[in-house]
Amino acid sequence: MSGHDESQDMVARIVAAYASRPDVTPDEIVNLYRRLTGEVQDMPASAAMAEPAGTAGQGAGGLRPALPVTQAVTEEKVYCLCCGRGFKMLKRHLGAEHGMTEAQYRAAFSLPEDFPLVAPSYSRKKAAHAKEAGLGKYDRTVMAGQE
Q1: Which has the closest alpha carbon to 51: 42, 59, 61?
Q2: What b/e string do you get for 12-38 counting C-beta neighbours within 10 Å, with b at 16 or more?
Q3: Bigger pLDDT: 33 or 102?
Q4: CA-to-CA distance for 105 and 51, rounded, in angstroms?
Q5: What does the similarity note say (predicted)?
Q6: Contact yes or no for 105/98 (Cβ under 8 A)
Q7: Distance between CA 40 and CA 56 in Å, rounded?
Q8: What DSSP designation does 53 have?
Q9: pTM for the predicted model, two decimal places
Q10: What count of Cα atoms within 13 Å lies in the side-chain half-sphere of residue 124?
Q11: CA 64 from centre of chain
């Protein structure tokens, strides 16, 4: 199989998996197909074949964000730069839908290490709940002395 056939097969598998979701419109499927074929055509054949499946076009800033990075974090949601959908936290979505870790996601869009992947309001809510539950209230100096 030639490199061109393999890249077409890779795009077809990704688009087919995306199209199987019940919340996807036909226009979104077409847009994904166009975006992926553009990414694969812009990529050298050796690079496309060297990457693991599901990471086409990724790398140091290799993907084009679905929305501007400046709009990716609001008070209530963080928006996935791969697909544009909003969530309270991205970790599970990135793994399940895009096959990426948080580190791979940050690298794919050249995001800093401290870029939030959890909505600020949700993070504060969880921190307040943990404090109410008494978590994190131990004296670290006492714990260190027991060893």
Answers
A1: 59
A2: eebbeebeeeeeeeeeeeeebbebbee
A3: 102
A4: 15
A5: Belongs to the ros/MucR family.
A6: yes
A7: 7
A8: T
A9: 0.53
A10: 6
A11: 12
